[in-house]
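Kindly inspect the following:
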Amino acid sequence: MNTRVPETPQTMRKMPQQSRSRFLVGIILDVATRILAEKGWAKFNTNDVARTAGVSIGSLYQYFPNKLALAEAIRQQHLAAILAVFDTIKVNEPAQADTFSADVERMIDGIIAAHLINPRLHRILLDEVPLSGRDAHQEFECRYAEFYLTFTARQVGTARAKIASQVLASAIEGVVHDALRREQLLSSELKNELILLVKSYLTA
């Protein structure tokens, strides 16, 4: 478990508005992602990113004040991928027995796939990069909690859903992150057991 003390939220200095600046930020983030995955947090630095990306350090600092801000932007891309998985599941429609099973499988498949995009990077983000304050991911936290609450309420009702959704989200996150650290995310047996866990919990 990552127990480091949260640091002050680090964010981009400004958002790119024009296509040229968006392209520049995209290149910086692509290079930063590769370097962070290859070298780890301790050897990750803004000078290396700027040099490899072919941009001046001043250009990089226009958008990212330090290396933690770069790491946070990389983390945001992963969080966006998780939300994209949730968007494929119509949680506001009444659940049917056949659609519930398909929804659970789609959710677990999608969450695992999002963590398989760059497993080494995710392990570094989990275990090496300092945690930012919760405000840095406030929008994600709200949408994350809302999805699990609505998804759970369809099966267990609103009275039980508040605590049940927290348990369900923590269980899925814990299993996936533990499998990531153990390099077991490609295990079909683990995926099937996780699907069974979710189905059993919500239909108990």
User: Anything to note?
Assistant: The chain has a mean pLDDT of 88.
